[in-house]
Amino acid sequence: MAALLGEITLLLGVLALFSGAAVDAQLSPTFYSGSCPNLQSVVRSAMTQAVNRERRMAASILRLFFHDCFVNGCDGSILLDDTSTFTGEKNAGPNVNSVRGFEVIDTIKANVESACRATVSCADILALAARDGVVQLGGPTWTVQLGRRDARTASQSAANSNLPGPGFSLAQLVAAFSAKGLSARDMTALSGAHTIGQARCATFRSHIYTDSNINNSFAALRRRNCPSSGGDSNLAPLDLQTPVGFDNRYYQNLVAQQGLLHSDQELFNGGSQDALVRLYSTNPATFNSDFTAAMVRMGNISPLTGSRGEIRVNCRRVN
Hints:
Blueprint: H1 2-23, H2 39-53, H3 57-69, H4 102-115, H5 122-136, H6 156-162, H7 170-178, H8 184-190, E1 198-200, H9 201-210, H10 216-223, E2 235-237, H11 249-255, H12 262-265, H13 274-282, H14 284-299
Antiparallel strand pairs: 1-2
Helix pairs in contact: 2-4, 2-5, 3-5, 8-14, 9-10, 11-13, 13-14
Protein name: Peroxidase 1
Organism: Zingiber officinale
Family: Belongs to the peroxidase family. Ascorbate peroxidase subfamily.
């Protein structure tokens, strides 16, 4: 009897262990290999079409993933629409009139649903789409960890407080990334995402009119399309040299004091990241390696796994 009780106790312990693993499961690149084997090709095909239609979309989807991960983890919460009883993240200060690409994610989700019904999370689709957009613009690839589930809620207040802003100082940037478990080196590498995409005049006006750590000719060029008042939504490329090519030119711009945002130029302004910026500006392989490693780490921020969250059928609303 004692032996039997011992075996039962051991069995219960094993079951408890596996139960815990189901809740706190780790992400894996092969998570959908059995349940949705064509997932990656479905996402890649749709992103290829989206980027071919509009090159800027690669940057928009990459930014969407970043803004998702920095607010309560990579859980697809940024994709949720507001309703009469629910306030999401889309209209938070850093997102309103700014984040875009939701229709592209909707299209990819519909294609994935056709292939594998109610199997793949919107959070994972966003992670894959961000990677594929970078590759479409000539950037490096990386292995995306999968197995995230979708949040059933969102937090506008967390979006307002957690996302780093274009006016941030270097210390504020380091602190914001550190709060998510990312190092200063990760922060500087991830900032290289600004080698693609565009920014609104409202986000860089103060830098081109009031900051001193900016190339005069560059400031004059940007002022042509960004008046001291008005024109808030006028766009300018974040990377002056190759705005739709994913490369290390962003860092060359910083060395030349041609960073578009105040927060960009803070990375090269007599501070702790100057040497790393110089390294990235002359060594694209090191930048690519650090960027891809940092993207994987960012994608690991507080994912919902196991029995937490859900697999949304429509990325814009909970099931």
